[in-house]
Write a structure and sequence with these properties.
The radius of gyration is 18 Å and the shape is elongated. Helix 2 packs parallel to helix 3 and helix 6 packs across helix 8. It has 223 residues and is of the alpha/beta class. It has 2 domains: 118 residues, 3-Layer(aba) Sandwich (Rossmann fold), CATH 3.40.50; 89 residues, Orthogonal Bundle (Arc Repressor Mutant, subunit A). It is built from 8 helices and 11 strands. Bound molecules: calcium ion. The site of calcium ion has 5 residues, from loops.
Amino acid sequence: MRILLVEDDALLGDALQVGLRQADHAVDWVRDGVSAETALMTEDYAAVVLDLGLPRRDGLDVLRHLRAKQKTLPVLVLTARDTVDDRIRGLDAGADDYLVKPFDLGELTARLRALLRRAGGQPAPVLAAAGITLDPSTRQVACGGRDVELSAKEYALLHALMQQPGRALSRAQLEQHLYAWGDEIGSNTVEVYIHHLRRKLGADAIRTLRGVGYAVPKSGPQP
Ligand code: CA
C-alpha cells in the first residue's frame, strides 16, 4: 500500500520510513504541513501517518482540511502531545487512530494494518477471495491450501487487489500502490507482476477487464 508519512523529525521520520518499507509499503515522506497538503491533493494514498507538530502548517489543520475535502482515507496521528484534550481534538478533527510518542514501531504497523483492513471493508484480519488467503500481519499468502512465495511487489499488488475483491483497479491505480516518489517505473511492470501472480496462483486468480483494469474475483474456482 502507498502511505504518506508526514514527520518533521529527521531521525524519527527516517526510522518510520525504513519500518514502513520493511512492511512492504511504498512510502512518500514529507516534512511540513504545506507539502503534506499538496501531496494529499495530488496523489492517491491508502493511508496517512501524520505528526501534529509540523512546520508551516499544523498537523491538525492538515487533517481538518483533508476531511473538509471529503477525503476518507485513514489517518493515524502521531504526537508528543499526550493530554486527553489533545487526543479529543485529534479525533474530532478526523483522525482514525492516535499514537503518543515514543511508540513502538511494531505497534504502529499493526495499527496501520487494522486501519487499512477496515478501510477496505475487510473486518477479518486475513483477506480471502478466489481460493486465495493473504495475512497482512505475517504477509503469508496461500492458494488452494498451499503456501505461495511472492516477491515484495507481487505481494503489494495482490494485497491491493484483495482489499476489495470484485473491484477492478486500473494499471495507474496499481502503480500508485506499488511505487513511491523517485521509484523508477518500467513501462509494463504491472503486467509483468500480474503475469507472475497468475503463474503462481493460477490463471483465473486475477481477471483482466478490458479497458478497466484487473480484479481478483469474489469467489474462486470451486475446490
Ligand atoms: Ca514534529
